[in-house]
Amino acid sequence: MVTHEKVIHLIAGGPKHLIPDSAFSNIGNIEWMGVDRGVSYLLEEGIIPHFAVGDFDSVTDEEWTEITLHIDEISRFRAEKDETDMELAMEWALKQNPTKIKIFGATGGRLDHFMANALMLSHYQKQNVLVKIEMLDLQNAISIYFPGRYQIQTDIQKKYISFIPLTTDVTGLTLTGFKYPLTNHRVPFGSSLCISNELLLETGTFLFENGILMMIRSND
After folding, report:
1. Do 7-138 and 145-218 agree at the fold level?
2. Do residues 139 and 159 touch, judged by C-beta distance below 8 A?
3. Whole-prediction pTM value?
4. How many angstroms separate the CA atoms of 57 and 38, rounded?
């Protein structure tokens, strides 16, 4: 049985120079979603998003006119709301039954926005284990993992791999095929032990027993 990936590229309004060209690449079965100013980024690239969401407090009157002219499905909310624009976007994206969600434009700029977006990944990944969720920019790829065994491939563009505990205790961490291997190790919250590792082979394996890990793959 052949299964087809359904990928959503979610473009937020962070600094555009940090968004890689791959965010706007029309290769594969991709649907685009714009979040606040990210909608204008898509229109600048000649892409009409399937959906637009946000309070749009960061766009000009001219940009808002362009948005309403080209996009049929828009959800505009008041700036004073309980959910962030990104949370509203993720709720919509997950209702489309994707296999992958790639988030762009969610890093850089304000640190509070970045931290909220990065930690938000844990919430949505836990509730949707069959959907691979990543946050990407020119230099980094961020993803969340829960206890289990995982295999990862070498990425020559992002060779550095860091594992950051998101809970008070990650236990049983084992890294195989890495420059700095570990065996059944306990990594406390706030530890810098697992920063800037590298794969020695084409593939590597990591596994752990308890906790939540954020993996960040980066280049210089």
Report:
1. yes
2. no
3. 0.89
4. 12
103: left (phi over 0), alpha (psi -120 to 50) or beta: beta
pLDDT, tens digit (0-9, with 9 covering 90-100), for 174-188: 999 999 999 999 999
Structure tokens at 135: 């946050």
With a CB cutoff of 8 Å and minimum separation 6, the contacts of 124 are 90, 94, 133
Residue type, 54: G
- Assigned CATH class of 7-138: alpha beta
Superfamily of domain 145-218, CATH level 4: Thiamin pyrophosphokinase, catalytic domain (3.40.50.10240)
DSSP string, 126-188: HH-TTSEEEEE-SSEEEEEE-SEEEEEE--TTS-EEEEEESSSEEEEEEEESBSS-EEEEEEE
The two tokens of residue 15 are 């600094």
Boundaries of every domain in the chain: 7-138, 145-218
